[in-house]
Each structure stands twice: as C-alpha cells, then as structure tokens.
Specification:
Number of strands: 6
Strand order of the largest sheet: 1-2-3-4-6-5
Helix content: 40-55%
Oligomer: single chain
Strand content: 25-35%
Number of helices: 4
Low-confidence stretches: none
Largest sheet: 6 strands, antiparallel
Mean pLDDT: 91
Order of helices and strands: HEEEEHEEHH
Distance between the termini: 40 Å
C-alpha cells in the first residue's frame, strides 16, 4: 500500500467524508460537500485553513505555504516518508474536526472572539 493509499484509507474512514477526483488527478476529501483538502498521489497534500491557523501551522513547521498560491490560506505538505504521511492525516483531521465543530455549534462560532 502506498502512502497516498494509506492516507485515503484513513481519511475516508471518518464519518461524513466522501471523495471526488480533481482536475489534476488529485483525490479530494469532502465533508458535507466542503473540501477539507486533497492528496496528489503519494507525493503531496494541499489543505485549506483560515489564514490565522495556516500561519500558525506554517510557523510551527507542520506544513508549508501552498506551492502555487503561497499567499492564500491553502497549505502544501510534501510526503517524503511515513512521518510526513502521518502529519498529512493529522492536518486533515484538524481541518475535519474544526469544520464539524463549526457545523455542530454555529451560534457559538459567531459569538467567539477571534484569536
């Protein structure tokens, strides 16, 4: 099993996740129709975050700016080894949990101060 296949297998086991194929051959992960990120085979993953979260994750070295749109909220994580594949799963889970929480508690989200 490739690292990409392992990532797809793990992420698609989460409740509510579906997949689609993107125009560049990537596997897109969707939660209630909303993209939480995608993998390009076994070599990289692109994951969108709100800019403040993206900036923190990049500063921590967990991921990098998007390879095409570095000034956006999108990130790119290159998959070179099993640890990188594990980090991709963790980053996708972070996005998954964040979006699920927001959908389950929309009023709380609107009243919370921005960090």
């Amino acid at each position: 099993m490739t690292r990409g296949e392992r990532i797809v297998g793990e992420v698609t086991s989460w409740p509510g996740i579906t997949t689609d194929s993107g125009e560049f051959g990537e596997t897109e992960f969707l939660l209630e129709g909303r993209a939480i990120g995608h993998v390009h085979g076994s070599h990289m993953a692109d994951i969108p975050f709100p800019r403040r979260i993206r900036d923190r994750l990049v500063a921590e070295g967990r991921t990098g700016p998007h390879h095409v749109h570095p000034d956006s909220g999108w990130t790119t994580k290159y998959i070179r080894d099993d640890a990188d594949a594990d980090e991709v799963v963790d980053l996708l889970r972070l996005n998954y949990d964040r979006i699920r929480e927001r959908h389950q508690h929309p009023a709380r989200q609107a009243n919370e101060p921005r960090r």
